[in-house]
Amino acid sequence: MELALSGRKAFAYTAAHAFDPNLCTIVFVHGAGLDHSWWGLQSRYFGYHGYNVLAVDLPGHGRSEGPALANVGEMAGWIFALLKELKIEKTILVGHSMGSLITLEFAARYPESAEKIALIGVAYPMKVSDGFLDAARRNDPAAYDMETIWGHAPQVPFSGNPNPGMWMYGDTLARLARLGPGVLHTDLAACNGYAAGVDSAAKVKCPALFILGARDMMTPPKGALALAKAMADSRTVDIGPSGHSLMAEAPDATLDALIGFMA
Amino acid sequence: MAGPKYPGFDTLALHAGQSPDPATGARAVPIYQTTSYVFRDTAHAASLFNMERAGHVYSRISNPTVAVLEERMAALEGGVGAIATASGQAALHLAIATLMDAGSHVVASAALYGGSHNLLGYTLKRFGIETTFVSPRKPEEFRRAIKPNTRLLFGETLGNPGLDVLDIPSVSKIAHEAGLPLLVDATFTTPYLMKPFELGADLLYHSATKFLGGHGIAIGGVLVDSGRFDWEKSGKFPQLTAPYAGFHNMDFEEESGTRAFLLRARREGLRDFGACMAPMTAFHILQGIETLHLRMPRHVESTRKIVSFLSANPSVEKILYPEIPDHPDHALAKKLLPKGCGAVFSFDIKGGREAGRRFIESLRVFSHLANVGDAKSLVIHPATTTHYRMSDEDLKKAGIGPGTIRLSIGLEDPEDLIGDLNLGLRAAAKR
Fold first, then answer.
1. With CB atoms counted within 10 Å of each terminal CB, which end of chain B scores lower, N or C?
2. If residue B219 lies in a helix (H) or strand (E), which one and from where to where?
3. N-to-C CA span, chain A
């Protein structure tokens, strides 16, 4: 689906379904440097199982026109504007990594619009090392290597991809290679600079699900504890062997956790 | 700041794509000799068919043993993924059938394996796909041959049998300026000697029958996608960027971005054309890949010794090996193939066709057969075998003369190989 937001093209994947106002809507929000296709299997599943799906491309990512937005609050506002444009009053949000911070901030700022939220691969604070930020600022391919290697569990290069014939490192690198200059840095700086975490978590009124990977090197599971503790209604699903890219590394377990949460 | 490091080539050759079998602990890659896979329940079955869950349905589409080979090759080449096929020719056909319809056009190097030349020059014409052949040594010829209906540029990393070095950086630049992908046949170089994606190629394939297997016991191919070509931006590939009624109106690019090409190639190409690889074949090819990094340096080292021997022999008219300074692509080879120019090369023997016959029939260690890239050394006369359907004009364009002999240097003691060639050359020189 393409639409205009503030005069700029915005895109959301809908699993090839027309919007049905009678159905509940799930918004999927991707992480730093990525796009809607990162949700592949999960967004497609819900699109074919009774939900409207909006797997968005944030500004400057995928098919949405830039520039990339500078902070998590602006990104949450962009999601709200998109829903307003589509006349969707209440939604379920599922966010990964930077997208989980956007989801959290959305639920805190617009509690009347958030029915449930799922935060995948989340930590607060979501600090990014100076070396990673510097490399991204320079558009140095080393930044893509850091995102790729740290973004997966250590065993990923030595184990089979659940998606037959695909190489996770290569897929991540190819996605990052399509990014415009500066976009990854803008995203990483937004994660690094996000300071509202625990305060926003306390404002969340809807049920929240945390899906965490035990071998996540970017957002280790202990980094989510403070957020979960601050929320009134949260539960956590630990996906043992997965790293940060849970939707790719453990697609079935991630989907099953989401299905259970939606029920 | 020192960043994290990827595993090295040698480690990936042994481990990429497989961990010990979770069911049995088997360290070696198990051979999943099965056609199909039991569904957990009807909902699981439906989700697998509709691509809502990852997994295997039927071994024509995917198989766990074959998937290890595919992932390992993607890792070694730096691609997003791969599809293993029944042969190298099946891999080339799968690439073309995924990207083109009747009315499409290919610009291809004239220096191709005879089977590829047949497919493009004759067979695909029957299905409305035309090819213009150009010199691999003149990148501008690729540009000039591009038409509005061109959908692919194609060449071999090292041409067959004259070892023309494809100037991938230049040809890929021409392709990309025209919104087209570049496909290369990387069989002769393997990922050990060259990484075509790092030089600008978008798609590549191997005849896995050759150096990847190395043992000459299994026919197979592997098609690898870099994931770097932007099909949407190109605007020339509705096969990947428009809803497809043959798969629930899926827009492959919208659905999967970097994986669009492989998604359609697997879900349509393997489903409908069916040229899949058998699990036992994948196992055999994997055994070869596990020692690729040990075999290729030895292949190259022995080839250099034999090229040196032949260069000094008065019965040899000309040697076509890019490491020789008078080869037309010597400078380019030094740039693109710093680890060596492989182990297949050709030379012209004095005395033409008859001398060639006496030479081949006198050899005892070299095997006279239609293959390359084996651990055993091989010899053939291209004009009467691999390239026999080509016209004299096309043979000339491909650098093949009546006395051209092609050698594939194996892993035997190089002194024994030199002794064998010496016998053959003496026999060839007799009147």
1. C
2. none
3. 26
Minimum Cα–Cα distance from A2: chain B residue: B254
Enumerate domains of chain A plus CATH numbers. 2-262 (3.40.50.1820)
The alpha-carbon gap from A157 to the nearest alpha carbon of chain B, in Å, equals 6
CATH 2.30.30.520 fits B294-429, yes or no: no
A 10 A CB-CB count for B294 gives 12
Residues of B in contact with A252 (CB under 8 A): 53-55
Interface test with B, best of A35, A158, A254 (most B CBs within 10 A): A158
Length of chain B as a residue count = 431
Q: What is the domain partition of chain B in residue ranges?
A: 10-288, 294-429
CATH number listed for the domain at residues B10-288:
3.40.640.10
Which residues from chain B sit within 8 angstroms of residue A253, using beta carbons?
none
- The secondary element (H helix, E strand) that includes residue B142 is helix B139-145
> pTM score, two decimals?
0.96
Q: Do A37 and B226 touch (CB under 8 A)?
A: no
What is Dmax (Cα atoms) for chain B?
A: 77
Q: Is A164 within 8 Å of B62 when comparing Cβ atoms?
A: yes
What's the confidence (pLDDT) of residue B431? Answer: 65
Q: What is the pLDDT of residue A240?
A: 87
ipTM of the complex: 0.96
Residues 6+ apart with CB under 8 A from B431: none
Interface touch A158/B56, C-beta < 8 Å: no
CB contact under 8 A, B80 and A166: yes
**CA B243/CA A14 separation, integer angstroms:** 13
Q: What is the pLDDT along chain A (263 residues), one digit of tens a residue?
A: 999 999 999 999 999 999 998 999 999 999 999 999 999 899 999 999 999 999 999 999 999 999 999 999 999 999 999 999 999 999 999 999 999 999 999 999 999 999 999 999 999 999 999 999 999 999 999 999 999 999 999 999 998 899 999 999 999 999 999 999 999 999 999 999 999 999 999 999 999 999 999 999 999 999 999 999 999 999 999 998 999 999 999 999 999 999 999 98
> CA A202 from chain center: how many Å?
20
| From A37, A62, A149, residue closest to B255, measured CB to CB | A37
Q: Where are the alpha helices (DSSP H) in B9-134?
A: 9-15, 42-49, 64-77, 88-99, 114-118
Mutation target vs B (from A54, A166, A184, A215; most B CBs, 10 A cutoff):
A166
Q: Mutating which of B258, B264, B266, B290 best tests the A interface, going by the most A Cβ atoms within 10 A? A: B258
Question: Which chain A residues have a beta carbon less than 8 Å from that of B80?
Answer: 166-167, 170-171, 174
Q: In this model, does residue B1 exceed pLDDT 80?
A: no
pLDDT tens column, B118-136: 999 999 999 999 999 999 9
CB neighbours (10 Å) of residue B375? 17
| d(C-alpha B428, C-alpha B351), whole Å | 8
Residues of B in contact with A151 (CB under 8 A): none
Output the pLDDT for position A46: 97
**A48 contacts on B by Cβ (under 8 Å):** 50, 52
pLDDT at residue B69 in the model: 98
User: What does the alpha-carbon distance between residue A103 and residue A119 come to, in Å, rounded to a whole number?
Assistant: 7
- From CA B349, how far away is CA B390, in angstroms rounded? 21
Q: Do A178 and B258 touch (CB under 8 A)?
A: yes
Q: Distance (Å) from the C-alpha of residue A21 to the closest C-alpha of chain B?
A: 22
CB contact under 8 A, B255 and A135: no
**Is B15's CB within 8 Å of A130's CB?**
no
